[in-house]
Amino acid sequence: MSVSTLPRRRRLLTGVATLAVSAVVLTGCTSNEPEPTGDTGGGTENAASSNDDTGETVTIGFSGPAADHGWLAAINSSAQAEAEKYEDIDFQTAEGTNDPSAQIAQVETFINNKVDAIVLLPTDGAALTDVAIKAMDAGIPVINVDREFSSPFAARTTILGDNYGMGVSAGTYACQLIEDNDIADPVIAEIAGIDSLPLTQDRSQGFKDALEACDQEVDNRVAAEFTVESGNEAAANLLQAEDKIDIIWNHDDDQGVGVKAAFDDAGRDEFFFIGGAGSKNAMQWIKDGEMEATVLYPPTQAADGIRLARLIAQDKGMSDLVQVEVPKRIVLNAPVVNADNVDQYFDLGFES
C-alpha cells in the first residue's frame, strides 16, 4: 500500500500547540524601563507596555554546539537571528564546539566580560555544570538549553525539548493510523538514534508506552547514529529483516535522509513513514505524499533561550502568566506534523 494512496483520516493527537508558543508567551508585558539588577531572580514588576519595546541594552553571551548536524546548525542560526531582532541586545557568540574544555573556556570568558546573561547549550551537561554555577555565583543568569546540567544551581532557567513526549506523540499517532486504516496484526518498526544517549532511550520509552496503550509493540528495532550514512545502513538492515512493515518511526530527520534513500533503493513504500525532529526535507516529503508525518523536536530552543535571557536580564517576566517571573523550567511541545498542518510548521523546519 503506497503512502500516497492511504486514507487521510487523521487527528492531530498532541494538540496543535505550535513551536511559536513561547514566542506568543514572551511578547507580553511587565516592565517597560526596568532598573538593572545583578541578581538572578528576574521579574519583579508589572506594567502595561510590550516586552518587545526597546529597553536597556543587555549583553548576552551564547555558546552552542559545532554545526555538524542540521538540527544543531539550526540551534545556532536561530539564536543569532533572534538576537538580531532586538536593538537592546548586544550579542556575543562563541564559536560552536563539541569540546567541553573549549566550551568551559568560552563561558569563563563571558564571566570575565561581565555579560548580563549566558545562553548555553552544553556539549556535556555534567562537564559544564561547575562553570555554569560559577557564572550564577557571579550574578550572571544562565539559561540552559536542551542538555541539562547536573545541579539545579547551575541555571536560572532551563528550556528543553520533550524527548519522551516525541515518542509518545509518534506512538499515539501510530495507534491512530492502525485504527483509521483497520490494520490487523500490524508490523511496527523503529529506527532509533544513538542508543547510549538518554534522549534516545527517552524517545524509545515514550514510543513503547504509547503503543502499549493500544495493545501494540515494536516488532523490529534498529539503531543508527544521527547521520545520513548510519540511517541508510540501519534502514537497509531493517528492510532485509522484514518482508512487510506497516509503520516505521525514525527518531531523527537528519539521519532520515539516509533512511529515505534506503526505502527508495529497495522500492519499499508499503508502510506509514513517521519521522522525528522536523526538518524541511521531511516536511517536503509530507507535502509530496512520500512521508506520513514527523514529530517535532524544536530547533528554536536557543532562540527562545535568547528571549528568556533578555527578559531576565532586563528584570521582566512573562505577561501571559500570573507569575511575574520567568519560569524556572520550560518544556516545549512535541506535536505531530502531517499533511493537514504541514504548511503551519514548514517555516520552522531546519535544513538537513
UniProtKB/TrEMBL annotation:
Q: What's an example of a GO molecular-function annotation for this chain?
A: carbohydrate binding
Query: Which branch of life, at top level?
Result: Bacteria
Where it sits in the cell: the answer is: Cell envelope
**UniProt entry tagged with the keyword Signal:** yes
* Segments forming domain Periplasmic binding protein: 60-315
Leader peptide range in chain numbering:
1-27
State the Pfam families in the record: Peripla_BP_4 (PF13407)
Protein name as it appears in the record: Sugar ABC transporter substrate-binding protein
Source organism per entry reads Nocardioides iriomotensis
